[in-house]
């Protein structure tokens, strides 16, 4: 494992943004992308860390972990549904097929948990029993497993700029997708989640819930895009301590970026107002967490890419003939 002192020293060099000699740069919370010829796109995963819909910091190696871990999961699930990945010319970069994103975030949940406004346990704790079109019985405990995983879709942004809850039926009723495509997306999402739970379990983890993004490829087929089963898109718990903690009424040991949200919440920050300063040790710990998750899930040793990233990235993209 990379020492915490080294990780702290790398924080100023962490990849905040890219300025590649390519036209049409676009940016999201974590990724920058550039359209390429022949229906392809270059996606660069930066070291930006977001939570509460805000960019909070830069975390060394975070982008590399997300990029390489997603590629690993794409390989593990390609027999279930095709994905957009073509190649990885650099540890932080992917070349993908362009696909038209489906305007529905597909969230699969295996447990009743969560404290955000769209989370199952939050809605249930308010007394709701009809949630996302599903009927839940009285007497459920926080963090208990559902009888079977369910899909709880949301809009992407919606009219308010925030994700709005949907039922599975409303996806078709509101004209967001046709019934055949939505059936394909739901079947793929549940199958990929099942595969994710199986592989996570082998690694000593519980895949609790996750968010998938799907797109329509140029040939009209549905493909899996964006990222898969990363600590940014998914909630993981440690399996070996779950039962004892659940029986004691305590929260499970999380194994994702939730501890960053908790650190901010402890300072009274939940996304509004000025972002408080946090110690460099938090971001070094976050880097360690991301690397450990990568190694735990894949069973592979993490090989850190050289910093600074952009010089290395440009060199690798030249070798790949991208620039």
From the spread of the alpha carbons, the general shape counts as globular
Q: Order of helices and strands, N to C? A: HEEEEEHEEEEHEEEEHHEEEHHHH
End-to-end Cα distance, whole Å, is 33 Å
Structural class: alpha+beta
Count of discrete alpha- or pi-helical segments spanning 4 or more residues? 9
Determine the CATH superfamily of the largest domain. Phosphorylase Kinase, domain 1
Low-confidence stretches: none
Helix content: 25-40%
Number-wise, the strands total 16
Q: Just give the CATH class of the largest domain.
A: Alpha Beta
Q: How many domains comprise the coordinates?
A: 2
Provide structural commentary.
The protein has about 325 residues and is an alpha+beta fold. It is about 30% helix and about 25% strand. It is built from nine helices and 16 strands. Helix 2 runs parallel beside helix 8. It is globular and about 60 Å long. It starts with a helix and ends with a helix.
